[in-house]
Amino acid sequence: VQLVESGGGLVQPGGSLRLSCAASGFTFSRYAMSWYRQAPGKERELVARITSAGDNTYYADSMKGRFTISRDNAKNTVYLQMNSLKPEDTAVYYCNARRSSLDYWGQGTQVTVSS
Question: What does the alpha-carbon distance between residue 110 and residue 84 come to, in Å, rounded to a whole number?
Fold first, then answer.
């Protein structure tokens, strides 16, 4: 099983980034997919989640209206479009796949929002 995140980097406040998470080694279309993040000195927190079919999404309050989660089951990839980025969005962003008791994590990608 592999989850490989990409697309992180340094961006100025107000800017945008699109994260991708490429999955392999499991039946991607059967798993709910999520993005989490962890800032230095803070606990890991849920950013957004999308159902296996992509027909329902959930966002943490501070991300609503700025972030969009989507998935392409044909490409085994989940995305996180992040707009209007703020310095407080700086964190390592992790991809997660979950189905029942099965729970997989990627290694994370760093997002830094700074001028």
Answer: 17
